[in-house]
Amino acid sequence: MPTTLIGLDGVPYGLITSYAEKGYLPNIASLIARGEIVQMESTIPDVSSTAWSSVITGANPGEHGVFGFFDIDRQTGRLCFPQFSDIHVSPFWEGKKAAAINIPQTYPARIENGLMVSGFVSPTVEKAVSPAGWLEKVRELDYRIDVDSSLAQESMEKFLDDLYAVLDSRMRLFRETRDAEKWDIYYFVFTGTDRINHFLFDAWDDESSEYHKPFVDYYRKVDECVGEILSTLKPEEKIYIHSDHGFCPLEKEFYVNRWLVEKGYLEFATDSPALITDMSPSSKAFSLDPGRIYINAKDRFPNGSVGTGDREKIKAEITEKIMRLESDSVCPVARVADGCEVFWGPVSSRGPDLVFLGRRGIDIKSLVAVDGLFGKRIFRGMHTQDDAFLIAGQKENLPSPFHVSRIASLVV
Q1: Domain co-membership, 402 together with 368
Q2: I want to staple 130 with a disulfide (CB 3.0 to 4.6 A). Which of 57, 60, 109, 141 is the partner?
C-alpha cells in the first residue's frame, strides 16, 4: 500500500491541537477528524539529528549511532559530524520505490531505488541529491535547503521573508517530484516550523505579542502546503503527519561545561578556549550538546584520563552534585538519564555516560566560551522530549504516548 509521510520539524502536540481547534489549520484539522492524533515522545537527547535518525530507522541511538550533531572522533580526538553514511541501521524505505525530501541527517544523499534530496545540515546541494541526474532540475527550481537563520540577528522581518522564500522553493520541488514516479513511499519534511519556533515561540499563544500574527500566519501557510499535498493522495494511500520533538518557550540557558569547570571535572589547555577539543588531557568529564556528559575515559578517548574503575564513581558524583544545584530555588536539571539505561544496541558504548534533561524553559547547552552558568541568547524557544505528535489519516487505534522510533513500523 503506498504511503505518504509529512514531517513538521519541531512542532509540539499542544500547538498543533490548539491551532487545529481554533481553525488556523483547516487541512490538518480535517485529517485529524477523519483519523486520529496522539502525543509522542522523542529521543534522549531530543536533538533533531538523533530524533530523525530514530524516525527513519526505527532504532535506538545505541543501534543507529547518532547521539547528536557533533561527536568526538575516538581515534584523533577531533570534533566530527555524523553523516547519513555513519548511520548503522538502514532506513525503512530501503527496498521500496521511495522519495525522501528534506529529511534531516540524510547528507550526503544516497538512495538505491528512488529520489533523495537531503535536508539540514547539508552544506551544499551538490551531494544532497541522489541520483545525480536530478541535480540539474533541483538547481533549476532554485531550491533552498534551509533558512538563513543569521537574518534573525539582523531583522526579524527579513528572517520571516526568508522563511516564506524557502517554503516556496520546497513546494516547487514537491510539484516536480510528487508524480515523477509511482512511489511506494513519499516522505516530505518541512523544517521552517522548527526555525520559527526557535526564534519566536514565545509568541505562539501570546496575542499581545507583535509577532503573534506573523507566527500564526506562517503556520497557516504551512497548512496550505499540507493541504496541497493531501489533495494529491490516491484513495488507497495511507497518510501520516508527524513531528520529531516538541517545543516550549525558553527562559534561560544552563552552560554545563562551565559547571563542570567549576566542579573540577573539566580543565582547558588554553586561557581562551573556543571548543571542547581545547580541554586538557587531565579532564575527567566534558559535555557535548545537548547536555551529553562523557567521562574522559582512557579506553574511550585518545587523551582520556579516567581509569575503568573510576568511571561509575565519577558518573555518580556528577549526578548527585548537579541535582543539588539550585537557581531561583529550582534545579535547572529535571532528570539525569544514565546512558546504560537509555541506550542499547551494538554501538551504545559510543554514547554519552549521562544526559542532562533540563526543566521546562531551561535549555542545557555545552558552550565553552561563556563566563557564567546561565545566560540567554537570541533563541526564544527550545526542544522538549515529551510532546511531539503523530497524526494518522486513518483510524489505527495508536497507543499514546507513541515514540518517534515506532513511526517506521507503521510503514513497513
Answers
A1: no
A2: 109
